[in-house]
Amino acid sequence: MGEIMKIVIDSFGGDHGVGEIARAIVKVLETHKDIELIVTGNKNSLEQELAALNFSSDRLTIIHTTEYVTNDDSPVTAIREKKDSSLVRAFDILKENDDVKGLLSLGSTGAVLSGGFMKIGRIRGISRPALCPALPTITGGNVYIMDCGANMDCKPENLCDFAVMGKAYLENVIGIKNPRIALLSVGTEPHKGNVLVHDVYGSLEGMDINFVGNMEARDLLSGKYDLVVCDGFSGNVLLKSTEGAILSLLSILKNKIKSRTLSKIGYVFMKKTFDELRGIMDYNNHPGAVFIGCKKLIAKAHGSSKYISIAKTIELLYDMDKVDLVGKIENSMKAKEN
């Protein structure tokens, strides 16, 4: 067995309580003998869930905390003042221990991002870390959005850094060589877009990346792009509107099928296809988003995540550490500066 990788998990914030986190812990520790988990939160609740699963491990440490960061808390204030919260304790463990490589939380996105900025800090040369989720495309792959909510207002240098970090992530962790990188805009022509898009377009053209130009939002899932670079406000709107449109379309299809007898008969033959489509679009079958650009690895899973998604997110942190993503980004930034 190789070197043990330690990951800390903030167990508060999941919509399904600690039960799904306990199941994810079991799955990860039974699958990966070189992972050790440190979990912060309500120790009694976690131990009860693990006992119900008849599981124990010497590669699991549970640290009891007395406070929690909620979505109603001011993210910055919570990180500063809720010192015995599960999230702040998790960040302290990540910061103070060299052998702890990554952190996962299902809680407040704002607090996770604030903790990353305030407790861990940026990789040297990175102007702003960014949140990078993935969506499935019609060609069977994924498209990644960077940023999708960490930085509401951006400067051109921020988007250039997003492109460098995104390229390093996709090449080294996801395995996409020379990823196709696009700039979110209102048209594919170079002259389209707002001031920020105009200012950054030429810079991206001159960088050592596979820049393929502007992308319109309607082409996000087309499979023509691997990474879409944008400010956090636009990226968040893009992500949520796309997810909402897909869910609405599936709901419309379901209602139409139920309303017609012939459609119900046809559904019998198409059920497997619909089930596969539902599985592809269900975020519970995919890992959460990664917060790239900090000195250590950070990931944010959806609050409604089930144990499969939580486990996949832990495994994503594991993969990021195995390829030394932070080191790869540091090298990329040095090359960019030269």
Q: Which secondary-structure class do the elements indicate? A: alpha/beta
The profile of the biggest β sheet is: 7 strands, mixed
The residue-averaged pLDDT reads 91
Percent of residues in β-strands: 15-25%
H/I helix tally:
11
Q: For the CA atoms, what is the radius of gyration? A: 21 Å
Distance between the termini: 39 Å
What is the annotated CATH architecture of the domain at 1-126 and 293-338? Answer: 3-Layer(aba) Sandwich
Number of strands: 12
Uncertain ranges: none
What's the CATH H-level superfamily name of the domain at 1-126 and 293-338? Isopropylmalate Dehydrogenase
Quaternary structure state of the chains depicted? single chain
Shape: globular
Name of the level-1 CATH class of the domain at 1-126 and 293-338: Alpha Beta
Which fold name corresponds to the CATH topology of the domain at 1-126 and 293-338? Isopropylmalate Dehydrogenase
In spatial order, strands of the major sheet run: 3-2-1-4-12-11-5
The secondary-structure element order is EHEHEHHEHEEEHEHEEHHEEHH
Helix content: 40-55%
